[in-house]
Amino acid sequence: MKQHIKEKLEGLKSNTKNVQLTSGRLKEVPIELNICTEIRYLDLFGNSIDEIPDWFYRFKKLEHLSLRNNTLKELPTIVFTLENIKYLNLSDNQIHEITGHYFRNLMSIEKVDISYNQITSIPSEKITYSKCNSLNIKGNKLQKFPTAVSEIHTLEKLDLSENNINSIEDDAFEGLENLIELDLSFNKLQYLPSSIGQLKKLKRLNLSGNEISSLPKEFENLTSLEFLDFNNNPIGRVPVEISSQGVSGIINYYLSLGDNVQLFEAKLLIVGQGNVGKTYLMNRLIHDSIPETQTTEGIDIKTWTIQTQSSSDFRVNIWDFGGQEIYHSTHQFFLTNRSLYLLIWEARTDQHLISFDYWLNVIRLLSSNSPVIIVLNKIDERLANIDEKSLKAKFKNIVSFHQVSASSGKNIDLLTTKIRAEIDSLPLIGDKLPKVWLEIRTILETQESNYISAEQYLNICNQHGLSNKRALFLSQYFHDLGVFLHFQDDNFLRNILFLKPEWATNAVYKILDSKAVIARNGEFDSDMLDSILEGFERDKRPYIVTLMKKFELCFEVERNLFLIPELLQPEKVEFDWDYKDNLRFEYQYDFMPAGIMARFIVRTRNLVYDKTFWKNGVIIQRENTRALVTVDQYSRKLYIWIHGNNASFLLEIIRKELNDIHQSLNYPDVPEKIPCNCQECINSKTPHLFNYAFVKRVGFENTFRTIPCEVSATGVNVHKLLGLYRIDSPEPDNNPIYSLDKILNDLIEVGSRILERKFQKKIEDLINDDIVDLLRTKGHNISDQTRSGTSGNGKGAGELDIMIRMSNGIPVTIIECFRLESCGPKNTVIADHLIKLLSKYDTHELKRKFIIVFGEAERFDNLWTNYTQYIKDLNSNNNYGDDYPLSGFSVRDDLHSFANMKVGFSRHENNGEIVEVVHVMINMK
């Protein structure tokens, strides 16, 4: 017995409640413990105890007992006399057997861990009563799934990993309706029973390291699943484009697999400045000829079939990008992984270093460092040398350099050989795909049209045995692969499938290239599209404009009038700005991707002050605070000046929008700088700049109270410096923007704006744009929870979930939006949204939440009457449940004077607290 254990034993008293005697070389339970009749927690981990004494029965109040890592050979049955025991850990012992009677007793304990013993079987006696919610039998020698477990209806977590289980009874999961986590990894399972589909609450499932080659169709019933691990099974890996769809996409893939074929396909992207011979090179590779074409405008996509070691029929999709500068801001939407890049440089130009730096950085950021072949073209006109060694040292994804002439064909064969080798070695080549998927793809690719409606697409899939749900998974896969474009997350674009991506993107480029639009500094209207998109069907033009809005290339200034910020005049507009006493902030880029400022202007369009913006800058305002935001492409810096009472709050809004843009560019760690505020720097135009992340870390860890300024060589108080850049409000309501009453008033105002616009736009646009945009103009920090959910009425549009947060990320409230045409007592839409609002999305138990209902009934007054009655009857509604019983409902006509808007307050009980839900109904008919 170790000395520290002796000291603990000497200090024991009859009222001692917590005892920890771990790793003390104990061979038996110390007799000194028997006086502790009030003990509730006992940990004897890491000793050599092989028997539990009879006097253990005295611990009537014991709740937590750990005997982990001892030498017990039998189950200590005396534990079952302890009526209050809730947690029992017997892992890492030498227990060989558990009889049926004692297993029933074990299951009367809430949490049991018997992992890493020598248990070979568990008797199948029926368990009529249990309390157990967590059972760990990991690392034993079970050969069959313990059927007794199926009777434990209370079980929420079950770990059977690292056993030798090779079979599971068909009905094994029928009684486990409350199971949330199931781990069956590293067994010898070859199949799963159909009853697994009954685990409707299951969120985590680990099946890795088994011998499973197929799944039962009931697997798709696991609608709550959030995590699924199938690694190291014969069923095979999931294509990366499928895994990005989440668990539901993975399940759909495996259930669809059936008769399958291997996919040998990749994308070859040809990039570079304009007029360097990209199109000539593409045609030389495919046809061994040169085209009679002009400069590529937009994107040209061709198919090239080659022979590699993996396949004699390897499909290469070549994307030839136009080199004009305006196109560069759109490349982020097409540069993807599973790709090989050809960076073309013209031998006769001396500007190669700028070209290399730009394109190699773009590829590095947007394609996860996909391999790049640098091609020196037009060597028959001039041969220039480049520093290959230095470039490869900086950009590790460069695989080779080639000197060719697309015009004469010189050295093209050597380049082709290298392309075949590199494209064959790309990761994830040879994925298995359901044969029916490729059949559907072939049908779509042979369509003469550039697009089809989503309804036509679903009909084609239905004819091939795919349900609508599986068809949408498939179109998402095609979209991610770059074969077709289907933007399911947009309520308008989801109605069309672009069969030829170049058709849609080239239409966008026609607008970007239009001389008329350029002459108007990026402004265009619907009438101008008649001439710009003359060859494009009139009814499809709204899709093109919506596509531009989605790509953050333009925004709507007013009804049917749009602006492309990238085409604004580069010269700074005239404005007055007092640069003294400003809150300053800078971003310093190693490489500045194109379009950052244009996208920022699009995102903050509703905050722009007095139309003050140009290509490289904008002034925005929230209440009495203004910010000047500018970029300098040459110094690769973005500058922010802010003055006003709420400067730090406006800075948080700006940082959030910029950080979202950086995240979309795979560039999350742009250095942020703040100026020193010492006496020498505070009024200087060139103050010392501190790294903001470092200053925050110092302030958080209190490493130092001051940090030195490199200009004045004096110490600067860290907390005083940080105080300028954050809102230190202990209570959310101390700032009026966080007041729930303020949010309510803002929502009523937002509702009035929607009523003004309801005949100008479709409901989908209102929900997806106006709600969020208008709230942001009121200064709220908005987190758009989901913009691609399916509405309760099954129409698939009109649903939005919004969270309003403080600047530090703490939630203030949640807003749930949905459409409603009718409301009877059997309606499930309202109950579903209420339950989601009260429980699913709210882990913080917020005091007040909001519901916005877009009423679409012929009689708005009848709809509101029926809705209020529905809310009042919630407690007798089986669809609503008992978790948040209604304690009252009141209509608030005093909050506004609009006949087309109604407001009501419902109050719900929750663990002794009252949660309030504000219902705002707007007449959209």
TrEMBL record:
NCBIfam families: small_GTP. Its EC number is 2.7.11.1. InterPro entries: COR-A (IPR032171), COR-B (IPR057263), Leu-rich_rpt (IPR001611), Leu-rich_rpt_typical-subtyp (IPR003591), LRFN (IPR050467), LRR_dom_sf (IPR032675), P-loop_NTPase (IPR027417), ROC (IPR020859). SUPFAM superfamilies: L domain-like, P-loop containing nucleoside triphosphate hydrolases. This is non-specific serine/threonine protein kinase. GO terms for molecular function: ATP binding; GTP binding; protein serine/threonine kinase activity. Keywords: ATP-binding, Glycoprotein, GTP-binding, Kinase, Leucine-rich repeat, Nucleotide-binding, Repeat, Serine/threonine-protein kinase, Signal, Transferase. It catalyses: L-seryl-[protein] + ATP = O-phospho-L-seryl-[protein] + ADP + H(+); L-threonyl-[protein] + ATP = O-phospho-L-threonyl-[protein] + ADP + H(+). It is an enzyme of class 2 (transferase). Residues 259-426 form the Roc domain.
